[in-house]
Amino acid sequence: MKKVVVAAGLAAAVAVLATAAWGSTRGASKVASATNADTALVKCGKTRTIGLLAPATGPAASIGINQVHWANFFKNTYNRTHKTKKIKIILEDTMLGSANGTAEAVKGAQALGSNASVLGVVGPAGSNEVKATTGALKGAGLGFVSGSATNASIATDGTRTGYFFRTVPTDDDQSKSVAKYMVGTLKVKRVYIIDDQEAYSTGLADSVQTLLTAQGVTVGRDGVSQQQSDFTAIINKIPRNTQLVYLPWQLPPKGQAFGQQMKSLGRAGTKLMGSDGLFDPAFSGLGNNVYDSFFPVNPQDARVAAFKKIHHGTELFGAPSYVAAQVVSGAIDRACKNGTASRAEVRAQIKKTNIPVTVSLLGLPVKFAKTGNLVQHPFGIYHSVKGVFVRVA
Amino acid sequence: MNWSLFFGELVSGLTLGSIYALIALGYTMVYGILKLLNFAHGDVYMVGAFIGFFVLQWLGGPLKPVVTGWLAVAIMFAVAMIGCGALGVGIERFAYRPLRNAPRIAPLISALGVSIFLQNSALLLWGPQFRNYDSFDLVGVKSYHIGSNFFISNIQILTISVSIALTIALTLVVSRTRTGKAMRATSFDRDAAEMMGISIDRVISFTFFLGSALAAAGGIMFGLVFGQIFSLMGFTAGLKGFTAAVVGGIGSIPGAVLGGFLIGLTEAFATGYLPGGSVYANLYVFALLIAMFLIRPSGLLGSPVIQKV
Predict the structure, then answer these.
(1) Does A200 have pLDDT greater than 70?
(2) A304 and A164 housed in the same domain
(3) DSSP, residue by residue, A105-173
(4) What stretches of chain B show up as alpha helix (H) in DSSP?
(5) What is the DSSP track for B192-210?
(6) Measured between alpha carbons, how far is residue A362 from residues A52, A294, A365, B60 in Å?
(7) Residue A255 maps to which CATH number?
(8) Domain check: are A98 and A217 in the same one?
(9) Count of domains forming chain A
(10) Is the domain of A95 the same as that of A192?
């Protein structure tokens, strides 16, 4: 019996040691593979691969598919104008706003990271998705350029410096423009803010609330869940003398439902203002009382007209994703000058991006600060006229 | 006291409660007859909302329907209710009937399986994006003033009245018809009913048809009132419907309706009056369920089960 106990004890000890050894080897190989992914040289060849993380399906599909269209529009233009080199885009669907949270985005980022031919990434779309995918993208050494993530802290908290860049201004810029327009132009005195409990939304709502309160505006505040469809109970809570309801939300169908329910409860006269996440025909179609804040885009640019001709729409939400694809492809081209490129080299080249105003779709130069933010970062205010957003400030 | 807010939340609660009541009726009827918690019921409600949506598209869409808006709504109700009724009968025939004599856990697991099957099929067929009923364009939503500060929309009036009308119709079917009598007999003692010549299979199929048709009506009402439908809308609504059935007393038709209105009102008044209510309304709803279990386990109108020992 004693022998059996000793043998069992030895077997257990061996098992523990073996497990520990296997774990440590696995950890080492993980580090090694991350380092390798960062510096491994890829033969550039004729076709260079860019990853795209966007919500092609899910509740935010209407804006996500627009980003996909704009990124592909860049790819097609590039491939048509470059005979010796081509771009290939690999799309990973992040399903922003779906019940799975950010799990799909993380899966997509992991898939791109493990694909050796991917040298840089456009996206992801949401600030929460940026936070969630940072580990996977950073671990794989991939630089990622978002065309819509606006949360201010994701660039300043130091977690992804050197990896994360964006072609849109931040929520700080957005909130300043929004508050200025509400007070200066619309001259509202009573505003009600409803966030959707996501980091993007609460951050923007807090910021606008602080700015409005400082200027003597009476601000009411409430929140809804992104999964909610019945807004009638919260609409009843909004004081009747409220002049404007601000919705810093990400999902245009929710904004549309809110607006429709406002109307059905006799609140058609109250102005609605959305944020960049609601810059969509679903929201602008609610009527002339609707306003929105959106990224800087030059609507006079010939590429906007060309895009509209192909996609028969006026949606500009994805235009910064076109610029993001332009940034990543430019960086790959420069890194590939000697025929090979590593992900680290591409990141270094993204940092050095300098697209002059004359060729920038944004109507301003595309140049990044150390944080990954644009050096110049104004935000536009739009007003819905006959169901279409028109820039007013 | 802000009476405008009170009245607004009352109407919101009754509207939402009407939808929950219709879902709860299906739960309670099936439980009454089969002692089965049909967890796929919420997904039948979702399918009903989608059938209504596609019928609307088939009729030319909300902007240019080939018939008048209200007639389009009536057709949507009719097709979705028949379609979902048939779906309910199919679910019972293939997922529950083979397990009728199995241990009670087996049909419960089967119900969960059907629920997941329906959810994923909807995701596969129709995608996860939101679809809009565009009730404004379809029927021209109007809001009516009562006094100076009380508002109610025509769609809210429609929802509450259709729900009440359907409940009355169901009560009449159950209490005044031969089939209803057979349903009551089956619910009371299935074996004895069978010995009296009642076709149990037919009664159960009819019960599933009725319950599923009511859920479809609830799905269309949701689309009309709140504007949007989506593939996963059945899960939470199903849970709320189930909660309503339990709160009212599972197995009791008036109890299900009462439970539905109570849940709807709790949600609306929690949003209007309680701190963080708009975000945590579900917390208050399910707290009510727990409280009900503690205070009156058989529900408001349920009768306690007496076991002979």
Answers:
(1) yes
(2) yes
(3) HHHHHHHHHT-TTEEEEE--SSHHHHHHHHHHHHHTT--EEESS---THHHHSSSSTTTEEESS--HHH
(4) 3-34, 41-58, 69-91, 105-126, 135-139, 154-176, 178-188, 190-195, 200-226, 233-248, 253-273, 277-295
(5) HHHHTT--HHHHHHHHHHH
(6) 20, 11, 8, 39
(7) 3.40.50.2300
(8) no
(9) 2
(10) no
- The pLDDT confidence band at residue A25, using thresholds 50, 70 and 90, is very low
**Is A385 a domain residue?**
no
Which one of A62, A230, A236 has the shortest CB-CB distance to B16? A230
Q: Which residue has the higher pLDDT, A105 or A301?
A: A105
Mean pLDDT of A237-245: 93
Q: What would the pLDDT profile of B224-240 be if each residue is shown by its tens digit?
A: 998 889 888 998 899 99
The pLDDT of residue A223 is 92
Helix residue spans in chain A (DSSP H): 2-39, 61-81, 103-113, 127-139, 153-156, 171-180, 199-214, 232-237, 252-264, 281-284, 302-311, 319-335, 343-351
The answer to whether residues A97 and A59 touch, using CB atoms and an 8 Å cutoff, is yes
Residues of B with CB under 8 A from a CB of A: 4-5, 8-9, 11-13, 15-16, 127-130, 132, 135-136, 141, 143, 145, 149, 151, 153, 155-156, 222, 225-228, 230, 232-233, 236, 267-268, 271-272, 276, 278-279, 281
Q: Which of B128, B156, B227 sits opposite A257 (nearest CB)?
A: B227
Q: Are residues A161 and A308 in the same domain?
A: yes
Over residues A87-128, the pLDDT tens digits come to 999 999 998 877 677 899 999 999 999 999 999 999 999 988
Radius of gyration of the CA atoms of chain B, in A: 19
DSSP category for residue B304: P
In one letter, which amino acid is B299?
A: G
Which of B120, B235, B279 to mutate: most A Cβ within 10 Å?
B279
Domain B3-295 fold: ABC transporter involved in vitamin B12 uptake, BtuC (1.10.3470)
Closest CA to A379 of A123, A207, A262, A255: A207
- Our CA-based measurement puts residue B164 at a distance from the nearest CA of chain A, in whole angstroms, of 20
* Residue that terminates a domain, selected from A237, A272, A294: A294
Nearest CA to B40 out of B114, B142, B128, B129 is that of B114
Domain that holds residue A204: 172-294
